[in-house]
C-alpha cells in the first residue's frame, strides 16, 4: 500500500488508516510526544507485527492509545480515584497510566504482565484516527515508530528514514517480508510538539507502594502530586516493566557522551588534535578555535530542548562523525525528562572519549 500523508482535514487518509488497523495492519501516526507505530490493541497477531517490525523484545510492554472520552473501565480492572483525577487533569496529553489490565484484554500489549499502560494523546491527527478506529471504541497499541532502542521519530520523515521508505514506497523489498513491508501507511502530522515520550506513572499498586514514576516526561512529578496529593516515588525492583525504561535506549548509531560546559573546549581541542570528528549538541557555543565538525544548538529551556533533542541526535548521526558530544543540560527537576533520555542514549558509551584519544 502506498504511503499516505494526512492532515486533520484529510478524512480519506484517516479513514483508510483506520481500516488498515481494523484489518490487522500497522499504521505510523503522529502524537504530541513522538510518532507511534500502531496496531489494534485487541488483536494479538497485529501487536506481534509491531514487535516484528521494531525488533522489540516480546516482554517489553507497549502503550494502548484511546480516543477522548473512551471507557477506561473497558481496558482496566479497577480505576482508582487518583487515575480519574489525573485523566481529568492531563488527558488528552502526554501522560500514561499503568493500571491493572482487564481480564479480556490480551496480554500481548503488556509483555505478559497483569497491568496495562494507557493514554489519550492530544495530537489532532492521533485523535482523528482513534475516533475513526472502531467508532472511537478501539485502542491502538503504539510504541515509538522506530527500530527498538533507536532514537524516537518526531516527524513522518524520521519514520520513513527508520524503515527505509519514502513517500512513494510501498515498503516491499524484492517480495520478501521486512520491517518496512509490515508498515502500511505513515500519517503526516508535522513535528511532534513535545518531542520526548510521555510521562509514565504506575497506579497499579497504590495500596502497597503509592504512585510510582516509571518514566519522567513533559508532565512532572510535582504536577502529578499537585493533582493527587502524593509525590510519585522512584521505581522499585518490583515495579511493572514499562515502555522505554531499559538502560540503553533512544540511542543513535554514533557513540554519544556528555560533558559539562566547563570541560567542552578542552575535550574538543584534544579530540580534534587526534583527528576525531566530533558532532556537538548543546545550548552554548564553544570557542571558535574549538568549533566541532558539526553542531546543533538547542534552546536553553527544557521544553524547547526536548522539542529539538531527537531531531538533533538524528541529524548529528548522519554527519559521519566519530562521536556525538552533548553538553550536559541543567540537572534540576524541570530537566528530568531530558536527562533521562540522554542518560539512556549515552548508556554503553562509557569511556568513549578515552578510547578515541588512545587510538
Q: What does this molecule look like?
A:
The protein has 359 residues and is an alpha/beta fold. Helix content is 32%, strand content 16%. It contains 13 helices and 13 strands. Strands 7-1-2-6-3-5-4-8-9 form a nine-stranded mixed beta sheet, sandwiched between helices. The protein has a four-stranded parallel beta sheet with strand order 10-13-11-12. A hairpin with a 4-residue loop joins strand 1 (26-30) and strand 2 (35-40). Helix 1 packs across helix 5. It is globular. The chain starts with 10 loop residues before the first helix and ends with a helix. Residues 1-5 and 170-178 have low confidence and may be disordered.
Provide keyphrases for this structure.
globular; 359 residues; alpha/beta
> What is the share of helical residues?
25-40%
Global outline: globular
Lateral arrangement of strands in the main beta sheet: 7-1-2-6-3-5-4-8-9
The count of β-strands is 13
In the predicted model, the low-confidence regions spanning at least 5 consecutive residues are: 1-5, 170-178
Query: What portion of residues belong to β-strands?
Result: 15-25%
Question: Distance between termini?
Answer: 48 Å
Counting helices, strands and paired strands, the structural category is alpha/beta
Radius of gyration: 21 Å
Mean pLDDT: 90
One letter per element, helices H and strands E, the order comes to HEEHEHHEEHEHHEEHEHEHEEHEHH
Major sheet details: 9 strands, mixed
Query: Helical stretch count?
Result: 13
